[in-house]
Structures are given as structure tokens and as C-alpha cells.
Amino acid sequence: MAQTPSTGRGTVGDGAAPDDGALSADAPDLRASLSALSRLSTGGPGLEDLLVQVATLAVQAIPRADGAGLTMIEHERNDIVVASAPFVRDVDAIQYEIGEGPCISAVSECTTMRSGSLGGDPRWPRFGPRAGRLGVHSVVSLPLVTPDGVIGAINVYAHAKDAFDGEAADLGELFAAPAAIAVQNAQLLAGAKRVAASLQSALSKRAVIDQAVGILMSRAGCTADEAFDRLRRLSQTRNTKLSVVARSLVDEAVRRARARRTGG
Q1: Does the first or last residue of the chain, that is N or C, have fewer Cβ atoms within 10 Å of its Cβ?
Q2: How would CATH label the architecture of 199-262?
Q3: What is the pTM of this model?
Q4: Residue 24: per-residue pLDDT
Q5: Which residues contact 215 (CB under 8 A, 6 or more apart)?
Q6: Domain limits of the chain?
Q7: Class (C level, CATH) for 20-193
């Protein structure tokens, strides 16, 4: 029978909050996973590679887990979905295709979701049977909660029925708390890199445009404003971006200068 969803973050099954010290003392796999999680470098691997590592550590942290997926919510961009094993990718794809499943529920309700018989779980009548036909019967979905809100979820799967008890869910929540911070840090760093790359690209385009304006001033004996206006009209006439037109003028000027120097 499907497990009853928890009523809030940190409460699974019996409603008691997990005791970090009591659980970790008897959970060497969790302690090893948390230790490895603390050593992950956000400046090393790419964002998706780091998320895969977090999902893989979740499998290590939770007893009887066979695989895990991680979904990171990206505002104004496509969400990033990774998996520790191919079967996880297939199961998660079903959730997002039909818009129903434990991950979606965990994120929307900010609550851990647990089931030991997905095929008969009434909470997900379309997702559950399809997951069951793939041989996946148990799940623990853990929202990734930060002070800024929910930024995604970790979905931990097992092929066996009733693989995850309340303690397994508690262990998962203990792992999910620092995992959420690691994911958020990686997300912020990736965003900063995108902004830096965009600024660098803008600066490079500006430099090329300035070079093209200088070339037109030299050729036509005009002012900078007149040269820029001419460059803008060329862009409109060719239906080509201003920076592309500028690059073609600069490249042409370089070829001519080299030809004159070599006598070609």
C-alpha cells in the first residue's frame, strides 16, 4: 500500500522530526555521502556533472536505493534534469511528460513524498502504473529547500516494493538539506559565469564596431557619428547584425593590409 505523504518539511510518516545525531551515528553511508558532498567543488566540474554527483551521493546515503535523479529549477530557462542511471532518466521523463509524479508533488508541496508501490499509488494514477511497468516500485522524493525557496528535488528510486521506510526518508532529508545549498551555490556560480560571458561578448562586439567605425572614418574622411550611421545603414540593408557587418569590414581591411605588405 502507498505510504501517506508527510505533512511538512522534516516530517515523514509518524510526524517526528529526524534526529541528526541519532541517525548519523548509525548511518555510515549517510556520513560518507555528506562528507563527499562537502568536498564537492562548484568551481570544478560543469553544472550538470556536479548535479549528477549529488544524485549519485543520494543513492549512497539512502539504504536500498538503486538510482536517483535531480531536478534543478531554472527561472526563465529550461529546468536541468540529471540522473545517476539510465532507468532513472526514463522514469523522470514520464513525470515531466504528463505533469504528474512524486517529484512534482514534492516541489509543489515542499514536502517529502514516499511510496512503496507506485503502480497502485492513488496520488499519481497516470505516473505510477507506467513506472511500475518499468520495474520501479519505490520512491522517496525530497524537495531541495533553501532560504530562497524550493530550487528542485532529488528523486531516489528502488526496483523493490516497500524499499524505503520512515528512517530511509529521514536519512534522505538529512542529506537533502546540505545538498540544496550545494546545488544553489552551483546554480549561482553558473549564472555568474553566464553573465560574465555575456558581458565579455558585448565588450568584444563593441570593440569590433569601434574598429569598423575607425576604418570608415579613414576611408571616407567622415566623423565618427557619420561613420556609425553608415555602418548602421549597411546593417539594415544586408539585414545582418551590426556586429557581424563590423566584423566583415575589419576582416576585409586586415586582408587588404596583408596583401599590400606581401605584394599579393
Answers
A1: C
A2: Orthogonal Bundle (1.10)
A3: 0.67
A4: 45
A5: 249, 250, 253
A6: 20-193, 199-262
A7: alpha beta
